[in-house]
């Protein structure tokens, strides 16, 4: 899947695909996946219950992009997407962590592979201060363990069981992307 996402990013770089927000990313990537995986079902915003999973066991309920075989409806690949556009850097990074936790839960529930894919053109998602939550996205520290809400009441936290190194890859101009494969 990483190769397919890299090829998608190259199509964006070359101007063959245009993305400008999370909605466009979801749909353009879904269309691209349908072209590349014609024997699979590619669906958007599928509830985990569609795949026989209990909603109560997850930090989220909807999977941005689900890839499965229509013959048995078992979830093969789940992809969570982010394309932050309105600043709120620490809050958005915390939301990325929630998606990582969610994809780990999907793996434990039987999904074969799960990813978080982030496209960001705001440099502050990948450059700047390297303290607190920023260190995972800008400083090269592995994303793992308990991640506490970085602002406000700080009353929420996400558990990340795997260990992830976030590597930003250039697309064009200030647009970069990263792929986190859940473990």
Number of domains: 1
Large-scale geometry: globular
The total of helices stands at: 4
What integer is the average pLDDT? 95
End-to-end Cα distance, whole Å, is 14 Å
Can you tell me the residue ranges where pLDDT is under 50 for at least 5 consecutive residues? none
What is the N-to-C order of secondary-structure elements (H for helix, E for strand)?
A: HHEEEHEHEEEE
Task: Summarize, please.
The protein is an alpha+beta fold and 183 residues long. The protein has helices spanning 2-13, 22-36, 89-108, 134-137; strands spanning 41-47, 62-68, 75-82, 113-120, 143-148, 157-164, 169-172, 175-181. The two termini are 14 Å apart.
Task: Give structural notes.
- The protein has one domain (2-181).
- The protein has 4 helices and 8 strands; from the N terminus they run ααβββαβαββββ.
- The protein has helices at residues 2-13, 22-36, 89-108, 134-137; strands at 41-47, 62-68, 75-82, 113-120, 143-148, 157-164, 169-172, 175-181.
- The strands form 2 sheets. It has a 6-stranded mixed β-sheet, with helices on both faces.
- It is globular and about 50 Å long.
List keywords for this structure.
183 residues; alpha+beta; six-stranded mixed beta sheet; two-stranded antiparallel ribbon; globular
Give the arrangement of secondary structure elements.
Elements: H1 2-13, H2 22-36, E1 41-47, E2 62-68, E3 75-82, H3 89-108, E4 113-120, H4 134-137, E5 143-148, E6 157-164, E7 169-172, E8 175-181
Parallel strand pairs: 3-4
Antiparallel strand pairs: 1-2, 2-3, 4-8, 5-6, 7-8
